[in-house]
Each structure stands twice: as C-alpha cells, then as structure tokens.
Amino acid sequence: MMRVSMRILCLLAGAQAFSTSRLHATRSLATQQPLSAKVDGRTVEGEVKPTNNFILVKIADAVEQTEGGILLTGKAKIKKTEGTVVSVGPGKTHPETGAVFDMPVSSGEGVVYGKYDGTEIDIDGAKHTLIRDDDVLVKFKGDKLTLDTVEVVRDAVLVQVETKERATEGGILIARSSSSETKPSTGKVVKVGPGRYATNGEIMEMEVSTGDYIKFRDYAGNEVEIDGEEYTVVRMLDILAKF
C-alpha cells in the first residue's frame, strides 16, 4: 500500500513539473512572438527595421497655431520637418574599402531634416518617415530644440548668419535674409560636428572651430530655426574661408 501511494505521489509531482515547464515554455514562446503592426494599411509581423544608412523617424505633429494665437487649418498647417528617431539601420559601408560608417543618431533622439528629404510611411496610424543619415541637419535631446540641446553631426557646421538690414528708397528697413538679393553667406560658427569619414573609416578633423567667422558658398546650407532665431547648417566642403 505504501509503495502504491509513493508511486502516485511521484506521478503527481512529475505531472506538476511538466505542467509548470510547459507553462514557462508557452510564456517564453509568447514573448518571442513578433509584434504585429500596420504599415501603409498592411498588417505585418515584427518591427519595421531600417536598412543600410536609413533612419526611421516619427514625424512631429504639425503646428496648428501661430505664436500670436491664430488657429491654422487644412493646408495652412505648418508641416514640421523634425521628429523622434525610432530606429536606425546598421550604417553605410564604403563600396571600395569595406569600412563601415557608424550612424550619427540613436533611438530616442530628436532630429531636424531637410524639407524635401525622406519617404513617408504610415505605421499604426502615425506618420513616420525614412531618411538617410546625410539628411540629418541637427539632432537634439529632450522635448525641445534649443541652442543648449542642439548638436550637429558629421562634417556639419551650425552658423549664426548675418542679417544686416538695408533701407529701401522709402526708408523702410528690410532684413537681408528676406530680400530678393543673394542669401547671407557669412556668419559666426556656433557649433561644429565631429568630422566626416575618410575612405578608411577614420574621422577627418574639422578645419573650423566655434567662434570662427566663415564665408560659405551662396545658397549652400539649410535654415534651422532655434529659439526663435535663424541659423544655417552648412557642410565643411561648402566653407570657402575663415577669419
């Protein structure tokens, strides 16, 4: 009788252990199951992962109200070319040397990119865009782009452009940047990127420093508004002289 009871207890213990093991296996399998998402209306399994040197960015909401409190509707809404980095690709590989160029941004950082850059993609009803690493004008941490949080990447230089005023024949002052003349191409260097990659993957030293005044090519660079002021992001190759 004792042997029968012990055998029953062993069988029960084995069944319980098998049940527990199966439960853990089921939970483990569930955690490994890819998440589903809707991409441009199509349900897909797993995450949307950028390839090469592409960056997946969740686009910031459009501005619906001006600083003066005027509500904007429809096409009047200001589409912001900034957002938060969701994920990044592995990086760009040089076709001749095989050197890998690391990505200049990380998940969670804010980025500002060119007006006509990127390919929009809808993920779970939210607007995203896929941009290249070279499309990034500046990056920043936190919720707001400020002069303290902004950083330039690669061989980019953040410049505070000169906006000298000129007077019309009627005596009306017009800022240079808003006139029909050539855009300002002189300014003070505010921030400097780490440098661009050489073919062997080494970072090349920048030739300008914070505080330098520079002259760059006409129409080179992209405007970025920071703390209500206009700045320009130019590449090192477009800088003609420093003084």
TL;DR?
The chain has 243 residues and is mainly beta.
What does this protein structure show overall?
- The chain is mainly beta and 243 residues long.
- The protein folds into 2 domains: 35-145, GroES chaperonin (10 Kd Chaperonin, Protein Cpn10, Chain O); 154-243, GroES chaperonin (10 Kd Chaperonin, Protein Cpn10, Chain O), CATH 2.30.33.40.
- 13% of the residues lie in helices and 36% in strands.
- It is built from 1 helix and 19 strands.
- The strands form 5 sheets. Strands 8-9-3-4-7-10-11 form a 7-stranded antiparallel sheet, with no helix packed on it. A 6-stranded antiparallel sheet has the order 17-18-12-15-16-19, with no helix packed on it. Strands 1-2 form a two-stranded antiparallel sheet.
- Strand 17 (222-226) and strand 18 (229-235) form a beta hairpin.
- It is globular.
- The chain starts with a helix and ends with a strand.
CATH topology of the largest domain: 10 Kd Chaperonin, Protein Cpn10, Chain O
Number of domains: 2
Shape: globular
Number of helices: 1
Helix/strand structural class? mainly beta
| Neighbour order of strands in the largest sheet | 8-9-3-4-7-10-11
Largest sheet: 7 strands, antiparallel
Return the string of H and E elements.
HEEEEEEEEEEEEEEEEEEE
Helix share bin: 10-25%
Mean pLDDT metric: 80
Q: What's the CATH H-level superfamily name of the largest domain?
A: GroES chaperonin
Low-confidence stretches: 8-12, 17-34, 68-78
Per CATH, the class of the largest domain reads: Mainly Beta
Distance between the termini: 102 Å
CATH architecture of the largest domain: Roll
